[in-house]
Amino acid sequence: MKNYILLLLTFISFSGFSQVSFGARHVGKPSDLKPKALEKFKASTTIFVLSDVIDADEYAKILEETWTVTPYKIVPQSEYDLQEYYNKNYSIAELVGFKRSKTTKMGSVVHSLHTYINIGLYDAETIDEKLSKVKAKKEKKREEKINEIFRNNKKPIAKIYLFPTSDFVNTALSEEKEVIVEKMYTENVFFNYSTGFLKNYFQQTNELIDKGETYWMYEKDYDAKKIASLTTAKLYVPTYITQRTNAFTAEISDGEDKEVEKLFSKYDYDYEFISTEDLDKAIEENKEFYYLRYARANAERFVQVVNSKTGEVIFREYITGLGYNLKAKNLGYLSDVIAKSAKKLAK
Q1: pTM, full prediction
Q2: Helix residue spans in the chain (DSSP H)
């Protein structure tokens, strides 16, 4: 199994837009990151090639506050040339987007869109060897071969998955890879790509890499002492979480009042909705509170409670089965965990 520091810090992949798709439940755990790969990464300079929707000055501020594991440099996508960096002492943090189509045994076609920030190292020796053997004469075919070589020979250290909007999903599924990536870099196409989210993501990524720990996203666990604090502390809920996804069309729309009320009907503690803009501002100002983070991949769903100041995940639930949306019973489970943790600590 590949040695990833797997971060479910966001949405992972969209699959099955024309029909309900059922993802297989993941079992087992990944092996730890190999020491040599980690040492090589820590000895590199990380090139951050990020979306234009956030100003370079804001990226600089975020990284200055969160990134200590390697020296780094921010390079605009318009100025980035992979040829300059892959075979030198650099690691790369870049946006990745691609789609896949799979025909089921029943003959139906299931589409998937995968979008994430990929942090890792290119295997320069293997890439150079394979590039020397490319014999395709047609320019398009040659470009495809070269792109495939680079894509298959980057060793991931961490992946931060991104939750695309329905408009982007519908566009991306009918476009070529180059168009998908271009929109990722130039348009606001993700629910969770903003200054506050990125700050917390990079905090956790930096800490995991620094400690050499593997973070396996297919887990259900919690910190009893910290989650128990939600008996009195308010849980902040980003408003995008209340939006509902149509399983057949992938359209995402605001939940009606009665749907939102039902969603939180089994959560017994204080909560408050917060916009992405207000969440970003609070995180940037180092205010400390807990907020809910929700993500989905196929029919797999992920619920997390995150510390806004540190980026620490104090609760996570991995959910499989029918459905594309968060359900009342999921928040009911969180409520039960809070109650049980508080009761246990009171003994």
Answers
A1: 0.86
A2: 35-42, 56-66, 124-131, 139-152, 166-172, 177-186, 195-211, 224-227, 257-263, 276-284, 328-346
